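Lecture 7 notes: from sequence to structure.

We start with a single chain of 859 residues. Read the sequence below before looking at the structure.
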Amino acid sequence: MLICEGPANREFPNFTVEMETGTGKTYVYISTALQMARDYGVRKFVILVHSIAIRAGVVKTFEQTQQHFASKYPDVKYHWGVLGEGPALDDFTEPSSTVQFMVVSVQAIDKPESNAIYQEAEQPQLWGEAMNGIASVAKMRPVVLIDEPQNMATDLRRQAIATLNPMVALRYSATHKETFNLVHQLGPKAAADAGLVKRVSVKGIVAGSAGRPYLLFNKLRSKNKRLMAEVVMDCDTAGGPKRQNVVLQNGMDLYEESEGLGQYRGMVVDRFERKPDRIVFENGLVVHKGKEIGVDRESVWKDQIRHTIRQHLKKQQALDGTDRDVKVLSLFFVEHVSDYVGAEAPLPQMFDALFREEWERAGNNRDSCPDPSSVRVHYFPSTKTGIYKDTKGNASDSEFEERAYQEIIANKELLLTRENPRAFIFSHSALKEGWDNPNVFQVGFLRHTRSELERRQQIGRGLRLPVDTVGRRVRDNVQNKLTLIVDEAFSDFRDGLNREYIASGGSSATQVDIENADHEVVVTRRNDLFASEEFKELWKRISYKARYRVTLDPSILPLSIAQSESLDEIEYLTQRGNVLQTAELRYDDEGFVVTANADVNEDRGTSLSITGQRLPDPVRLVEDQLLTTKFPLQLTRPTIMTILAALPLQKKRKAIHDPERWSRIVAKAIRQTTIEQMVEHITYEALPDEKSWDAEVVFVEAESITPPPLSPGVDPSYGVAAARDGGSNLYDATIYDSHVERSFAEQLENDDRVVLFTKLPRRFKVGTPVGEYSPDWAIVYDDDGTHRLYLVRETKDTTHLEDLDWSEQMRIRFAGNHFAGAPNGLVEYAHTDARSGLRVDDASSGKSNTQSQRSSDEV
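Now the structure, written as tokens:
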């Protein structure tokens, strides 16, 4: 079903592309546009952005990719301009055989009463009536490329986009709040697993209170005309004092709220005051909004800067030991310009002293230390006369921020050269997207307060893969890591980041993996085994990629679905009546309602009568359910009608009780039955050898992991197990994801018949109708000295397939079909558990629970 948006008289199709920050979405949408121009003759593209930073970044991408795209699309001539700069609007609205891009800030089109583009034209056009700028653009029917559409979701901006009269809108973002016809998805986890962005680790610095009461006052809020304060304070817990979010009310005793922490004794809320917002305590203490007490903020900054410099020098030394010339950059975000600029600013002197200390600590000669002031640089918003200014990232600050952005963008490449000593950048926290230089490896956030999406902004500034001094992208799984130096505990940062992803439209399944920087382990490839003939033969057999074809009998499918056990849930559907709740309100002395939930009486009424009420279209409901799932299944309306017609009458009648839930149950039965039949009727066809997986890409020379810290008596469910010296493991350690995998690896290590084995990285994937699948192990096995077997194994905690999750069952069964068609020599695939081991005998005798084949190559 095609989802459109816009007012009724101007609906246009929308397609959603989800791409994680740092994976090159600007490049992708420009390339997509040029391919549309080449293949379909489309000539007009509007790139819609919401901020100065993104606009500057788009223009910079056009400049940097000019030669590349001229080579990639030699027959497509194109031109770009920015609305409001030069003749960009006139060039865009003139008929031309050249492809035209116009970069437009949404603020330039979302106020019809004041935006220049809506002003009437003074002269009529030669071929007709006078048209204003927006009408001229609308006449072109452009393709609109929307960068970060979640920032354009207001009614005013939706109307503004529709006013452009798009042929189609393509929406690009990492976190869409609304999804229209999702055509591509590359989330944080997938991007990191594929090596498209840096991995993320965190150094958390928790401020000590030295027995003083800690309190951070975030904001006042009003409920039923009563003021309350949202604060962060220390509270005693089973695991010791921990900082927690607390809502304070008038008269509240912080000693009691902290569960008896002595430093809060005598702190009782006296009143809240507005303009300025502040909390007044009975002991005379006053705390203003955005301020915190009980912590030496500069001591925290000192530790953050120290660890940032230390990590920077360590990273530069590690990269200098490789064959690529990469300059490391570190970024500090500063909330107030006065912390860095001016005679009383603490940060420059603090940095300079710490840089000298850390330079010597790293083993360098004191005399060789560069002048610390020469290695740091700052970019802050400023007035035309050069006076630096604090900003908050809102529209009124755009003039000041634009000057800072222009300087940042202009110096982006200059900072990557060794001739430029600047390596530590101080910038304003409100600039947000203004800094995303690929060679930023460390980010320190020196702040007084924390915004709601600050953690995500920290990560976004350094996710891109680094480049060397000649501009080539560097792919190094060990070194490509972004370290965040934050002023909170690692667990608080992790939990806060996950909340932010969900709040901004992400899902828990696609959250970025973050690592504790203090627990890193590097796993190294054994190149003698990698170069061995045994590995080469194994890889030749399993590295192929394949496409699959499925042929189903349309006459059998409806009958199978009608008999599906999944439809049994329909029997429990009942008609729903309204719920009447009755309760008496009881108040405390301060006027708060204290009626408990248990005191509420409920009358659930009788079944609703639906006589004469028009029901939703069941075919449309089922169709929507099939398309809006993790694994969409697209069936034609006639096919769905045939399936519904075959359902038992009593199950069809249940649709009137709860149409939405009924459609979900039916769609689940259709999906599961269809996919289960696919297993029996799927054929895998190997692609040409040049499409196969590259061993150097799948099996990198070194890979780092941050396992959980070992605690006494605790057996971690994932981590790293060292391999036996001189053993058969392709790596010097095994990265395991479960107890089963760790035990299985130990069995392989101790089995003399195992010539070589490896845990397959998640980069190695097999395509199936229920998503991509990564098997666990690849093994070369010596069978009694007469035959050599090439095995692929999946390890679970059971050998009974029916005990696994349904989607896991399907992936394993499809994988059996994939490996059964191995084109370059037979491969035996099976699923097993730690107790059953390799199951070579079962598989060889046909007892395996998945399809398998045995090699008969002579050793």
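The first helix runs from residue 25 to 40. Keep this in mind for problem set 3.
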